[in-house]
Amino acid sequence: MKNILIVGAGFSGAVIARELAEQGHRLTVIDQREHVAGNCHSARDAETDVMVHVYGPHIFHTDHERVWEYINRHGEMIPFVNRVKAVSKGRVYSLPINLHTINQFFGKTLAPDEARAFLESQADLSIESPQTFEEQALRFVGKSLYEAFFEGYTRKQWGVSPSELPASILKRLPVRFNYDDNYYSHRYQGMPRDGYTRIVESILDHPGIEVRLQTRYEPAMRQAADHVFWTGPLDAWFGFDLGRLGYRTLDFETVRCDGDLQGTAVINYCDSDVPYTRISEHKYFSPWEKHEKSIAYREYSRLCGEDDIPYYPIRLVKDKALLQQYVDRAREEKGVTFVGRLATYRYLDMDVTIKEALDVSDAVKPALEAGARL
Ligand code: FAD
Ligand code: UDP
């Protein structure tokens, strides 16, 4: 049996703790916050009784059977489809770009093949292999749709021109030539009936796991553990001594009202003269509940300062160069494994986070079983 310290009680830390506790090890999971579940934390708002996604909207979607089974073992998932609306120049459209968006935007009634041919006529075909976000958009949806839906939003979200961002960010969104307005394409999509925090609490509910909240990692804690799993920021482990990896942080402006505010879960605001990127009306994430009052978040994105919560890794060229230096050092570190979205400096959806945590656990179990040092 090993004494293992896990820093961070988000999905990454919780899943590894549970897997190794079931193998008979003793786990201590610490988190500097006063709750588990990391950025997926959800809690009922005292005034409206609505389940709030405290750090921004989270919709569970996956194609991984094992991950879907895992999450369902720890809480009831209710089918949920995210249907996002987007406001551009004072009009409401459907996102991701689908046949309805194309027909509404261009005032047409095109059939799928006609719409495909029409967008080809809008596209900049001289861009053979798009590298940047802007090139990807101009190549696949053309200038008008790019300017209406992506340029302003992306500048607000990332703080730089889309010509400085990688094409991979836009590739997260499909373009559909039918009326399917489901934001995601995954087979399993759902929302936990009792919120994400209850799920993470259930994962951590094992006699071999001790959870200590409001506990920040101190290097001295390392001595008492046979091994550490670090799910905090990679650069924080090294005391930021080579500099800080760039993140965007979010500010949420809370709005409460009687009745409904906007009538759906998420509306994106694509114009640059609106300062926020989107509004999330939380009761629409639990449509099986009835509430007379409503609570919504207006979401603002800005550069992450030293005391802010890191949300989105920026991953511009200078960040990638610094990342490589930290990765080289991390490879030399003994007795610590870096896991999760912050420690690997990547944008990871919840399902990928759980999948990677299960994979890491699978990989270390044989060595732990044999009593070896990791
Ligand atoms: P985290 O949840 O960040 O957990 C890390 C924990 O480590 C935190 O609780 C932190 O307090 C703790 N910690 C850090 N440093 C220390 C320290 N020094 N001492 C003690 N504790 C420390 N995914 C989806 O699948 N669907 C979505 O719709 C979705 N929406 C998102 C919306 C937003 C705005 C964001 C930012 C992310 C979204 N995600 C979504 C991604 C999701 O949040 C992540 O997949 C998930 O949070 C990753 O879990 P994690 O455990 O790796 O990290
Ligand atoms: N995006 C945009 N307009 C929108 C929605 C998204 O320009 O209305 C861009 C934006 O740059 C965003 C990216 O597309 O970061 C990926 O969208 P997604 O919804 O996956 O963003 P996230 O979940 O990261 O907020």
TrEMBL record:
<dbReference type="GO" id="GO:0008767">
    <property type="term" value="F:UDP-galactopyranose mutase activity"/>
</dbReference>
<dbReference type="Pfam" id="PF03275">
    <property type="entry name" value="GLF"/>
</dbReference>
<feature type="domain" description="UDP-galactopyranose mutase C-terminal">
    <location>
        <begin position="148"/>
        <end position="347"/>
    </location>
</feature>
<keyword id="KW-0274">FAD</keyword>
<keyword id="KW-0413">Isomerase</keyword>
<protein>
    <submittedName>
        <fullName>UDP-galactopyranose mutase</fullName>
    </submittedName>
</protein>
<keyword id="KW-0285">Flavoprotein</keyword>
<dbReference type="InterPro" id="IPR004379">
    <property type="entry name" value="UDP-GALP_mutase"/>
</dbReference>
<dbReference type="Pfam" id="PF13450">
    <property type="entry name" value="NAD_binding_8"/>
</dbReference>
<dbReference type="GO" id="GO:0050660">
    <property type="term" value="F:flavin adenine dinucleotide binding"/>
</dbReference>
<comment type="similarity">
    <text>Belongs to the UDP-galactopyranose/dTDP-fucopyranose mutase family.</text>
</comment>
<dbReference type="GO" id="GO:0005829">
    <property type="term" value="C:cytosol"/>
</dbReference>
<dbReference type="InterPro" id="IPR015899">
    <property type="entry name" value="UDP-GalPyranose_mutase_C"/>
</dbReference>
